[in-house]
Structures are given as structure tokens and as C-alpha cells.
């Protein structure tokens, strides 16, 4: 090696060492934090890519899997990674905008399914700090304990090829915000426009949407939180996609009455003449307190980001923030029935759906009471709270057996299922 080459090499080494010191040899009072959008590739060369599925629409007629691209071409994704070595959690996808184009599958490293996030810019605000960023490629970090993703989208089509008319309709209200603080201390730290989050917080971010059962068609669609261990997506040829499962922020509830011989109210006029159900003149299913609102309008927290690595699911609850944002619903007063004689089945569509009650998802802290007037006498049955954990995109069926002497909640017949295309299963508690 010539002396000239040695000199050049020494200069390169010195420059690299100086840059390293600038990043890691800062003052003892402020340690560096990992960036949101690192300027260098993450530890692996496997890009993070996304797929999508829609899990919640009563209008779809097929029970085959329905891609979310049947409903929208744009979605916004948040995601962060956690560590089990004491390192702070790191925000990775800061509200990235993903666009769907089926003709561009495979045109870049992140596009395996038509969803692409490269080439856009955006901004993120935490507290009083706002930073801008470019949507660059992200790679899987196999040193991470797991990644956590959530996304939301504005519906553009009805799933059957028809565009949704937004004329005169306000766009979906979606709020993404830091869910907690630690006393006077912020749960996040921002240094040089990069952010990390304390492992001491139980939740990092929440996604909240405004919803109204009077207009389910224009309601924002939000994914459930996906907890992904990078190793679980490893394949012989590379990495699988993060599949985001979307639904609208609503649930459906119904009840059936069963007579002494096992006939159900859904049989309608096919009930035998001696059926105990023919003596029922009034039904009423509602919260036990009598004054609790069945939520039909308001803000719904549809996804929470648990920071702790032991938490693997997102919380879903209804938030009653003020009286103007929620209103009570009439009690459930009509059993489920099919309008067509002899029509059977718990999974029907369109005009055949009778007396499904639509609500905002709620985890009830009090039981429900079924009140039935039978032969002029009122009888009641109680639904315990463990059967009242309503989640978005699900339909819940409660069955009550009616005899000449009593009405009984049939716990073994309680069921819940996805009420959307892509699912047809019934799951017992």
C-alpha cells in the first residue's frame, strides 16, 4: 500500500470516529435516543410490508376473505417496537400514509400486496414538539421483542364496487394522542426530532374515532392492534406481510326467545300453537340500573398501544366524554325474527336481517336484565357482566328460555361471531 493511500485511509477513519463520537459521546446529562426514522438501515435487510383485510361490513355478500382495498385506497399506519432489555420503546411508523395500487405490486421493496408507503412526507406532534419526516423504508429489527401496529382509513367504497358519496358529509374524526403521562413527567423523550417512550407507561398511544349508528356507512374504519414478533414472519424466502384487520367501530346485538320445546322466536309464524312464546306480550332487555345509556353516538377508543411487552391485545371501550356526544337508545324490545316463513340461519344479509340492534362497543360493568310479560305476569332473567364485553365488528346473540313458570338466560347458547364477510363461525364463550 502506498503512503498516499495510507494517508487517505487515515483521514476516513478519523472522520468516522469523529462522527461516532458526536452521536455517542454527548454530555453525561443527556444520553442519545434511537431515531424514529433512522438515517441508516435497521439491523436487518428485510423490509416491513403490509397487507390488509376487512373484518366488518354487513353489506358484503361474500363470506370469502375481503381485502380492505375493496373499501379504500389510502390508510394511515402507526407502529412502534418494544424491547425486553430495558431499552425504551421506539416509534417507527409515525402516521405513515399507505396507498394501494394493484398494478404496482413488486415495484419496490415494501410493496408485496399493492400497499406502498415510500416517497411521502408528513409531520408528527407530541406535546409542544412537531417534527417532519420522509416516509422511508423500514427494516425488521430482530433484536426487538415485538412490533405493534394500528391503522385507520376513511371509507371510499362500499365493498361492492360503488363509490361512497361524501357530499355534505363531514370527514371522519380520528384522534391519535399520547394516552398517559407519568405525574409531571412526559412519557416520551424527544431529542434532535427523534422520540422514544418510557417502558414505565402502560399505554403509549390511543386511536379514537367519532361514531354514530345513524351513519355507519361513513364511519372511519380502524384496524385492531397487531402484535408481531419479527421471527414469526420469517420464511424460507424472506419475510411475510403485516396483515392489518379492519372493522367499523360498531357491534350488533340481538336476542332470541326459546319455548319449552326448543323452538326459537326466529321461527316467527312457524311456532306451534302450544308454544310458550305465544303467551309473551312484552319483552325488555336493558342494563340493570335502568338509566345507563345504550351508546349510539360518541367517541370510541378502538385501539390502545400497550407499551409493556406482557400486553398482547388492544383495549376497546366506549368513552362518554359529554352528554352531547352520546344519547340513549330505546331498550331492546323485539326478539330476532326472519321475515320469510321458514327462513333459518344466524348469518343473513341485507333485508333479511331483522332486529339486530347496533351499538358502540362497550365493556359493561353491570348486568343486563331481560324482563318478559307472560300471561300478564312479569318475569326476569339476568345476563352476567362476563357476557357483556362488546367489541367492534362482532355480533352477539343472547337466548332466553321461556316456560309457564320462568324465564332463564341460556348461557350455553350464548354466542358471538364476526358479523361481516370473511367469517361465518359461531364461538361459544
Task: Report how far apart the termini are.
Answer: 75 Å
**β-sheet strand percentage:** 25-35%
Rg on CA atoms, Å: 27 Å
- Helical stretch tally: 1
Report the biggest beta sheet as strand number plus sense, adding barrel if it closes: 10 strands, mixed
- Name the helicity range: under 10%
Structural class: mainly beta
Overall strand count: 25
Q: Averaging pLDDT over every residue, what do you get?
A: 75
Task: Kindly describe this structure.
The chain is mostly beta strands and 429 residues long. It has two domains: 30-246, no CATH class; 251-294 and 329-428, Immunoglobulin-like. It has one helix at 3-24; strands at residues 50-54, 74-82, 89-100, 115-116, 121-126, 129-134, 146-153, 174-178, 188-191, 194-197, 203-212, 221-223, 226-228, 242-247, 251-258, 280-287, 297-306, 317-319, 357-359, 368-374, 377-383, 394-402, 407-409, 415-418, 427-428. The strands form five sheets. Strands 1, 2, 3, 4, 7, 9, 10, 12, 13 and 14 form a ten-stranded mixed sheet that branches. Strands 15, 19, 22, 23, 24 and 25 form a six-stranded mixed sheet that branches. Mean pLDDT is 75; it is low at 2-41, 57-64, 340-353 and 421-429.
Write the layout of secondary structure elements.
Elements: H1 3-24, E1 50-54, E2 74-82, E3 89-100, E4 115-116, E5 121-126, E6 129-134, E7 146-153, E8 174-178, E9 188-191, E10 194-197, E11 203-212, E12 221-223, E13 226-228, E14 242-247, E15 251-258, E16 280-287, E17 297-306, E18 317-319, E19 357-359, E20 368-374, E21 377-383, E22 394-402, E23 407-409, E24 415-418, E25 427-428
Amino acid at each position: 500500500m502506498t503512503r498516499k493511500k495510507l494517508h487517505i485511509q487515515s483521514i476516513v477513519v478519523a472522520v468516522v470516529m469523529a462522527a461516532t463520537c458526536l452521536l455517542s459521546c454527548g454530555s453525561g446529562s443527556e444520553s442519545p435516543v434511537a431515531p424514529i426514522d433512522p438515517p441508516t438501515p435497521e439491523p436487518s435487510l428485510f423490509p416491513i410490508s403490509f397487507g390488509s383485510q376487512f373484518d366488518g361490513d354487513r353489506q358484503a355478500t361474500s363470506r370469502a376473505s375481503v381485502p380492505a382495498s375493496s373499501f379504500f385506497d389510502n390508510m394511515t399506519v402507526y407502529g412502534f417496537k418494544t424491547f425486553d432489555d430495558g431499552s425504551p420503546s421506539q416509534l417507527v411508523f409515525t402516521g405513515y400514509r399507505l396507498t394501494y395500487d394493484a398494478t404496482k405490486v413488486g415495484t419496490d421493496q415494501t410493496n408485496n400486496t399493492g400497499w406502498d408507503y415510500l416517497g411521502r412526507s408528513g409531520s408528527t406532534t407530541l406535546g409542544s414538539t412537531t417534527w417532519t419526516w420522509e416516509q422511508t423504508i423500514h427494516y425488521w429489527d430482530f433484536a426487538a421483542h415485538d412490533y405493534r401496529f394500528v391503522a385507520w382509513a376513511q371509507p371510499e367504497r362500499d365493498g361492492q364496487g360503488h363509490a361512497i358519496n361524501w357530499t355534505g358529509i363531514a370527514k371522519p374524526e380520528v384522534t391519535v394522542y399520547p394516552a398517559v403521562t407519568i405525574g409531571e413527567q412526559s412519557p416520551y423523550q424527544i431529542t434532535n426530532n427523534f422520540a422514544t417512550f418510557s417502558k414505565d407507561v402502560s399505554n403509549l398511544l390511543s386511536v379514537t374515532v367519532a361514531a354514530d349508528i345513524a351513519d355507519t356507512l361513513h364511519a372511519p374504519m380502524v384496524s385492531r392492534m397487531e402484535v408481531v414478533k419479527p421471527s414469526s414472519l420469517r420464511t424460507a424466502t424472506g419475510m411475510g406481510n403485516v396483515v392489518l384487520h379492519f372493522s367499523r367501530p360498531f357491534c350488533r346485538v340481538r336476542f332470541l326467545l326459546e319455548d319449552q320445546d326448543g323452538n326459537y322466536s326466529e321461527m316467527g309464524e312457524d311456532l306451534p300453537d302450544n308454544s310458550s312464546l305465544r303467551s309473551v306480550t312484552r319483552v325488555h332487555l336493558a342494563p340493570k340500573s335502568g338509566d345507563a345509556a345504550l351508546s349510539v353516538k360518541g367517541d370510541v377508543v378502538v385501539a390502545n398501544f400497550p407499551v409493556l411487552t406482557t400486553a398482547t391485545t388492544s383495549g376497546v371501550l366506549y368513552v362518554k366524554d359529554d352528554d352531547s356526544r352520546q344519547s340513549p337508545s330505546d331498550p331492546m324490545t323485539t326478539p330476532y325474527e326472519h321475515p320469510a316463513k321458514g327462513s333459518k340461519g344466524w348469518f343473513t344479509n341485507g333485508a333479511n336481517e331483522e332486529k339486530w340492534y347496533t351499538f358502540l362497543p362497550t365493556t359493561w360493568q353491570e348486568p343486563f336484565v331481560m324482563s318478559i310479560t307472560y300471561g300478564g305476569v312479569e318475569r326476569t332473567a339476568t345476563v352476567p357482566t362476563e357476557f357483556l364485553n362488546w367489541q367492534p365488528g362482532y355480533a352477539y346473540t343472547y337466548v332466553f328460555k321461556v316456560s309457564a313458570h320462568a324465564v332463564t338466560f341460556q348461557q350455553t347458547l350464548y354466542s358471538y361471531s364476526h358479523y361481516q364477510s370473511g367469517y361465518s363461525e359461531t364461538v361459544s364463550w
